[in-house]
Design brief:
Layout lengths: L20 E2 L8 H7 L19 E5 L16 E5 H7 L16 E3 L6 E3 L2 H9 L5 H20 L1 H8 L15 E2 L9 H6 L9
Helix pairs in contact: 4-5
The structure holds zinc ion.
Length: 203
């Protein structure tokens, strides 16, 4: 039985974007692409869409619109975040989670629920996003504890919480004006699910 996936493990390797839609006039139209790109969770705090209502999700501009309005609808400037992190970040700058592996910057302590910065980038992330705000630490600690108990006593519910959403976006149906990385469509979680390649749980 798989019971080891950690709910708050930041990625330890930098990577490339799989998707490259472009041409939407409204940046919010990129959201399903970003959900798939960032595994249905907030890039900054790792809150999963499965854990929160749909209305708490946002599209964040890495380089804020106040600095670069021309990047408002630039897919590579967009990330998926929760409302909390989006409201904290505002016009500040943080390291790009695609270029910088946050796992080398931040570590979550299981017992306290606190986030420890591991380097300068981690210090920026922790400060700008207020990752150690009392409410965030408490929520994180409770979530870790609850999931640990679920993994032991209710493994199927635990898999629900740690697995992919039931409804995955079918990106082939989205047809943006253009797509500079069409090969990424095969890598989308919807397609992986069709090929029975999705793991039950993920980090
Ligand atoms: Zn967040």
């Amino acid at each position: 039985m798989i019971t080891t996936a950690h709910p708050y493990k930041y990625p330890t390797e930098s990577r490339h974007r799989r998707h490259g839609p472009s041409g939407y006039k409204d940046y919010r139209d990129y959201r399903p692409w970003l959900e798939d790109e960032f595994k249905f969770r907030c890039v900054y705090c790792l809150k999963r869409q499965k854990w929160a209502r749909t209305d708490v999700w946002s599209v964040d501009h890495l380089i804020p619109q106040s600095i670069a309005l021309d990047k408002e609808c630039d897919y590579d400037n967009l990330v998926l975040t929760c409302q909390w992190c989006n409201n904290r970040k505002l016009a500040d700058l943080v390291p790009d989670p695609v270029a910088v592996a946050y796992g080398n910057c931040l570590q979550v302590d299981d017992d306290s629920g606190r986030v420890s910065p591991l380097n300068e980038d981690g210090v920026i992330l922790e400060r700008v996003l207020k990752l150690n705000h009392q409410s965030q630490v408490l929520t994180r600690r409770e979530k870790i504890r609850t999931l640990k108990i679920m993994a032991r006593c209710a493994p199927s519910e635990w898999k629900q919480m740690m697995g992919f959403p039931e409804e995955l976006p079918n990106l082939r149906r989205k047809s943006p004006p253009s797509n500079i990385r069409p090969e990424g469509l095969d890598d989308s979680y919807f397609e992986k699910c069709k090929r029975h390649e999705l793991p039950e749980v993920y980090e």
